[in-house]
Amino acid sequence: MARRALLTPLERAEILGLPEDPDEIAALCRIDEADMSLIRQRRGDANRLGFAVHLCLLRGPGIALGADAGPPVAVLAQLASNIAVSPNLWSEYGAREETRQEHAREARAYLGLTAFGMGDFRNVVEEIESVARQTDRGRVLVETAITSLRRNAVALPAIEVIEKACAEGLTRATRHVHSTLSGPLDDGQRARLDALLIRRSDSALTQIGWLKQAPARPNARSMLEHVERLTAWRALDLPWPAARLVHRNRLLKLAREGGSMTSADLAKFEPRRRYATLFAMAVEGVATVTDEIIDLHDRIIGRLLRAAKNRHDASTLASRTSVTALMRTYSQLGEALLKARETGEEAFSVIEKVIGWKTLAENTAAAKELARPEAADSLALVSAQFTTVRRYSPAFLAVLDLHAAPAAVDLLAAVEILRQLNTAGIRKIPDTAPRSFVRARWKPLVFTDTGIDRGFYEFCVLTELRNALRSGDIWVGGSRQFRDFDEYLLDPQDYTTLKSAQQLPIVTTDGNPAYLTARLELLTQRLARVEHLATDGKLPGVTAAGLKITPLDTIVPIQAQPLIDATSGMFPRIRITDLLMEVDAWTGFSRHFTNLKTGQPSKDQQLLLTAILADGINLGLTKMSEACPGVSYAQLDRHQAAHIREETYSAALAEIVNTQHRHPFAAHFGDGTTSSSDGQRFRAGGRAESTGHVNPKYGNDPGRLVYTHISDQYSPFHSRLVNVGDRDATWVLDGLLYHESELEIREHYTDTAGFTDHLFALMQLLGYRFAPRIRNVGETRLYTPTRTHDLTTLAPLIGGPINTATIAQHWDEILRLATSIKTGTVTASLMMRKLGAYPRQNGLATALRELGRIERTLFLLDWLENPELRRTVTAGLNKGEARNTLARAVFFNRLGEIRDRSFEQQRYRASGLNLLTAAIVLWNTVYLDRAITTLDTTQAPPAPELLRYLSPLSWEHINLTGNYTWPRTTHKPGRYRALRHPTNP
């Protein structure tokens, strides 16, 4: 197996690079009396300087000075100054190689280091092999090797030697992975894997190409096709437990590598690698298709329930005329009967005279029909969809390996009964069938005078199964997203070890319940204070009656507008291609788009940037190849498959965000410690329409949501493509925990949809201040540590006491959950989604909700008391809304619709858009700085306090449309475009 280069040239320079900061250089070159005594023993100033260099490099980074190597000029000058010699003497040092080697040996002996030898090389290879079985990231491997050598007091050899040892360890680890997966395969299993690469008889696709297809639409036909795919994956009958012997990272990397190749490329692999790759693809394929089947079921049931509700609403609207007519008729009859009672007229004759007996009978029948209990609930109308459900439910229930928690045992038993009835072809549901899971709404429909209604019972089971899968009360073998809840969390023994060592990575490192006591005491104090202020009418901007909050003044003062207009008019006009090229020259973000197989950056920068731009402006590779001269679709497609992935997008985004964060002018916008997040909906059109989800909040059109986190410096440091049906609060923690930038966020803002009590609890435990802007604060409940009657003014807002006993009972479960999220054992969004779907009686979900009520009440009390907090949160959210406007302008092609069927391609669209907006923010920040500097020299300098109101989100000066051509020469750092004059744009 050919060895690939592990490090890029820049990484080689960074890993063992010497500092450039004067303070760091001074620390590196520190010479004490013992060092000086040893240095003076050398004969001649040149030798003294050379020996000092050996000593400095070996003690600092641990580098052995190479034969032809020398230290940086700044380091040499500092050392020469420390020992009082001239740095020019370096050219005279080491004329004899023996002298350099002798000095190196003496310096090592003095520092207690040994020289790097073949034994150390073999030790590094063995240690790296074990690490490389978990990850093949070159930088991680090399840094692990360096740490090992330093731990063993071995002087570091040249970086090329370390890289060679790591490459050998990686090669051995890769062979081990291949052997682990391919070794247990018998001849029949190998033959079935080879058959995956053969074209199907009924289509132009190979078998594996068909198996990798995403579901087309949320309907019975797509479900049956996907069940067939899962059945086909399982029919390979592979030794599935062997996959657990390979680390998840390596297994996923192997599967992704195979997924990016054609069947012809896979067929050319040597057998061991080919079978291992196909095995990894099969493991991932089973999990992916299983999750997609469950998602299809979720969407089908949701669509059928929505259709029933829409028909019910339409029927209710249509019946209004009949109801009005009936009310008019009966009101006339009632008046006539009341009058007849007064006059003594006979009632029957009145009825005959007013409406007649025939009309009365018809109206009574109509009223009875309208008053039927089932007519008041849309569930009765799902009976029209029984045929759709029956088309796929037998295959759906049969193919899933379902398991249940105690709360869902009856539901799983009901599923098993349906399976048995489907197998035997029996229609009638036995009277002994489980029924405890049937909710009150379903009971009149499911349980009838003639027994259990099969259609409604089956639909009810499928609906409750959907809910139980969401919450985790039922989990599925072979799934990634629907596993047993406990499997997601940190191992109990590991949690206990961390807690005993007081090393929990959360705010209470020892897990002591005293933390909870302190929060309750603080809540008691804050409630008393705000009650006192509210009673005296001293809550700023808050009206005591109903606790209504006066709207804030305009965020941007009128004095700042002339400065905003002047600076925005000075931006140079620029094409988006030039902007992207210049930002890459400043940051080098393109180097993070490494080749999936070789780990090296792209050799064709323009081709890579073209593929990124195709994602960011939503043009797509086909249209981009037509709009970009000299580029073909095939070139873009190959480059995208090799270099563009979620992890490369994330690394490149972090590079741009870090550069903007470090720019001095960004400090005017904020210090990078606060952020906000919001979701932006894009319609799913074309082939993607069937993959989109519907949320009544956005109408009836299917769509996708891009949930983005933006710092107070305007940089969008994290984004994720999510379903529009998920509450925003599900995704808040992901952006704070898993972004790769240098930002250290401590406070975060969201709008009303971005908070839940569960999120309040976890945000506090994970060390973040959470400050959502809650709509209708007067309708939001406050909670007290105990039942109290002392809060008279706040009484209308009090929702009751906090159940502290439940929190205490589940305290360790809460801490284990928070620790699991913090350590990356499980993603926060997955846990938030499951906790939100749990039934109210679930202990952990209830306890976390009660803990969240403490934190939410503390926040609301701050919100009432502190108008500056309200102003800060509003300003932070306004930045996010302004960034969404920029994103909408950039994502203009295809009418702003996401039209790719593949979820992976849709994610690329969202990531490309976020990277492009981050590049625009950085470019604008740089030129805002230049504009302000120019204004300082041409007129009275602007007031410093007004600079915070400038924004790097404008795009009027950027040409986003037309042919996408790239500049012939690379833009050099330090050279900038001329600014426009504000009066002559």
UniProtKB/TrEMBL annotation:
GO terms for biological process: DNA transposition. Residues 669-698 are annotated as: Disordered. Residues 6-168 form the DUF4158 domain. The keyword rRNA-binding does not apply. The keyword DNA-binding applies. InterPro entries: DUF4158 (IPR025296), Tn3-like_transpos (IPR047653), Tn3_Tnp_DDE_dom (IPR002513). It comes from the Bacteria. One of its GO terms (molecular function) is DNA binding. Keywords: DNA recombination, DNA-binding, Transposition. Residues 578-964 form the Tn3 transposase DDE domain. Belongs to the transposase 7 family. This is Tn3 family transposase. It comes from Lacisediminihabitans changchengi.
